[in-house]
Amino acid sequence: MRRLDGEKPNILLITTDQQHWNTIHALGNPAIRTPNLDRLAREGVAFRRAYVTSPVCSPSRSTMITGEYPSRHGCWQVGVALDPGRPTIGRILSGHGYATGLFGKAHFQPCEEGSFESPPHIHDRAFWRGFRGPYYGFETVAMGHGHGDSPFAHGMHYGVWLEEQGIDPMDYFLPGKDNAWGEPWALPEQYHYTRWTADRTMEFMEKRAGRGPFFAWCSFQDPHDKFLCPEPWASMYDPDSLPPFRESPDESAGKPAVYRYLLEGRIFDFPREQLPPDAEPLIRGQMQCLLFTNDSIGRSEARKWLAAYYGMISLIDHHVGRLLDKLEELGIADRTLVVFTSDHGDYAGNHNLWLKGPLHYEDIIRVPFLARWSGRLPEGVQTDALFSMADLAPTLLEAFGLPPAPHMQGVSQWRTMLNPETPSRGWCLVENRVHPDYYVKTIVTDRFKMNYVLNREADGELYDLREDPDEFRNVYGHPDYAGVRMRLLEKLVDAYGRLENPYPPRTCFA
After folding, report:
1. Quick one: which of 103, 208, 429, 447 could link to 200 by a disulfide (CB 3.0–4.6 Å)?
2. What angle (nearest 5°) sits at the alpha carbon of residue 257, between those of residues 256 and 261?
3. CA distances, 208 to each of 212, 213, 335 (Å)
4. CA torsion through residues 230, 233, 236, 241, sign
5. Which secondary-structure segment (H or E) carries 70?
6. Residues near 286 by Cβ (< 8 Å), separated by ≥ 6?
7. For 43, what's the count of Cα atoms within 13 Å in the CB-facing half-sphere?
8. What is the pLDDT of residue 328?
9. Cα distance between residue 211 and residue 10, in whole Å
10. Angstrom distance (rounded) from CA 173 to CA 73
11. pLDDT at 3 (0 to 100)
C-alpha cells in the first residue's frame, strides 16, 4: 500500500450511538441536514449496506474493537463485561507505535452493577481527575456515559469537567431535573457532552500531530433516547414536515409472537407464557428496549421524538465538521483515514416501533458507514457491497499495512474500499441473545434476510429485500420460498463452521 512520505497513516474513527442508517442527506434522506457527513460521503466511500453484529451497545462496541462476534468475545448483552484482557485493535496498534485514544462512550462493562462504568464509581470525582488510561488497549481516555439527563450522564471525566466549568449537574441531570422525552434540554450547547467529546478528540489530535501516527476514537453518545437536545438543535425540525413512518396497518400478521405481545400492551408477559417452567424468569429490560410504539405514546408525540432525533444528529454533524476542519488545520487530513459509523440503529417509529429489540428490521441492524482518505480511496462513491462491523478492525489493520490478527473473525474490506464494486463477503451475521432463553440469529445476503429464533421455529422471519424492502411481508413459511429458507439455514450453519477458526495446529496423528 502506498504511504505518504513513508509515514504510517492516522485513523479518526467517529461513531454515534443508535443512529438509523437512513439519516444522512447525501445518502437519500432529503429531510435531514447533515452537511458535514455529506462532505464525507462526497469525498470518500459510502457503504449503504453495513450491518452490526448485534443491535445492542456493549456487544456491538466489543465487536468493533476485537473483530469478533459476540458469541466469541463473550459480551453477549448489556450488563455483561468484555474481558479486559481480550486482544483489541487499540492494543495491537499501540504495539506498532500508534498513540491510541478513546473519547466519549466506551460501554464495555455493565453500567448498573457496581462495575468500573457504573455508579457509584463513575461519580468518584477524585478518581476520574487522576485516571487517563489505559482502558481496553486505549492508552489515553476521556470518558462519559449515559444519555440526556440520566444520572449516569454526568459521571466519569465529563462530570469532572462540568464541575470545573462551574456547572452543578443537579441543575440539568436527574434527580435534579426530569425532562420529558423529545423536549428541548436547558443544558447550554457549550456544555453538552457531544461538544465535550469532540473537544477532547481534537485536543488529542493536536498533541499527536507531527509526533507519530495516532488512532483517535471519537465516540458520541447520541442520538440515543431519551432524545434530549439543546437549542437551537432541538427546534431545528418541524415534526409535521418529516418523512412518514414506514408501517403497515396489518403488519403484525405473520410476524413473531413478540410483535403481537408488544402491540397488545403486554410485552412483559412475553415469553413467560411460552417457555418451559425452568426457564429464566422474565424481568424488566430482558426484551431490551422493546416497549414503545407510535400508538402507545401517541402519534403527535412520536413525531416530536423523531424531530428531536434528527436534531441530535444535526448537532453531531456540526461537530463532525469541526473534527474535519481540525485535520485540515493541523495539515494531516491527507494522511488520515476517517471512518464514520454507529453501533446500531433505532426503529425510529418505523413498523410502529421505537428504540431497539429482538425484531431485526433493517432499522436497527443496518447503520451508516463512511470512509475517507484523500488520495487513497475513491471519492463520491456509494456501494451496496455488504459490510459487517466485525470487518472494521481487520480492515483498519490492512489499511495501516499491518498483518491480520489471527483471532479476528471479520474479513478485511480494504480491497472493497479501494474498489467498491468488488465485494469482500457474501453474507452478514447478526447475533442477539436477548436473554439466555431467547436468541435471535440473522443472516443477510444481497437479496434476502432470515431471522431465526433458536428453539422457536414459529417465530422465524424471511424477507425478500428486493421485492419487499420495507419488510412488511414475512415469507418464512411461504411454500414459494421454502428453497430459499433452506439455503439460508445451510448458509447459517456453514457460516458458523467458518467462524470456528482459527484451529490450533495439529502436531501428530495420534
Report:
1. 103
2. 130
3. 7, 7, 13
4. negative
5. helix 70-73
6. 280, 434, 435, 438
7. 18
8. 97
9. 11
10. 34
11. 40
Helical ranges in 125-239 per DSSP H: 125-130, 156-164, 193-208
Please report the sign of the dihedral spanned by the C-alpha atoms of residue 78, residue 109, residue 122, residue 222. negative
Amino acid at 205: M
Alpha helices in 155-214 (DSSP H): 156-164, 193-208
Q: Is the peptide bond before 184 cis (omega within 30 degrees of 0)?
A: no
Q: State phi, psi for 294 to the nearest 5 degrees.
A: -55, -35
Question: CA 462 to CA 10: how far, in whole Å?
Answer: 41
Percentage helix, strand, coil for the chain under 3-state DSSP, each rounded to 5: 35, 15, 50
Q: Which residue has the cell 428531536?
A: 308
How is residue 400 written as a grid cell? 495501516
Q: How many CB atoms lie within 10 A of CB 188?
A: 13
- Contact criterion met (CB below 8 Å) for 24 and 34: yes
**Cell 441492524 found at:** 365
Residue 505: count other Cβ atoms within 10 Å of its Cβ: 5
Q: How far apart are CA 116 and CA 499, in angstroms?
A: 31
Pairing of strands 140-143, 381-388: unpaired
Q: Is 246 helix (H, G, I), strand (E, B) or coil?
A: coil
Q: How far apart are CA 370 and CA 437, in angstroms?
A: 36
Residue 291 CA to its chain's centroid (Å): 20
Question: What are 365's three cell numbers?
Answer: 441492524
Side chain identity at residue 157, one-letter code: H
- Answer yes or no: are the C-beta atoms of 442 and 430 closer than 8 Å: yes
Q: Could you read off the pLDDT of 50-95 as tens digits, one per residue? A: 999 999 999 999 999 999 999 999 999 999 999 999 999 999 999 9
Residue 430, C-beta contacts closer than 8 angstroms, at least 6 positions apart = 51, 52, 53, 54, 55, 360, 365, 440, 441, 442, 443, 444
Q: Per DSSP, which regions of 17-139 are E strands?
A: 45-51, 99-104
Which residues have C-beta within 8 Å of that of residue 210, sequence separation ≥ 6?
Answer: 332
Neighbours of 285 (CB within 10 A): 16
Grouping H, G, I as helix, E, B as strand and the rest as coil, residue 429 is: strand
Q: Residue 277: its pLDDT value, please?
A: 58
User: Are 361 and 350 contacting, i.e. CB atoms less than 8 angstroms apart?
Assistant: yes
Instruction: Respond yes or no on whether the N-terminal peptide bond of residue 256 is cis (omega within 30° of 0).
Output: no
Bridge partners for 52 per DSSP: none
CA-wise closest residue to 453 among 270, 185, 182: 270
Torsion of CA 250, 256, 261, 263, to 10 degrees: -30
Instruction: Please list the ranges in the chain whose pLDDT falls under 70.
Output: 1-7, 271-288
Question: What is the C-alpha R_g of the chain?
Answer: 22
Report the alpha-carbon angle 152-158-163, nearest 5: 100
Digit-coded pLDDT (tens) for 283-342: 444 566 788 999 999 999 999 999 999 999 999 999 999 999 999 999 999 999 999 999
H-helix or E-strand containing 355?
none
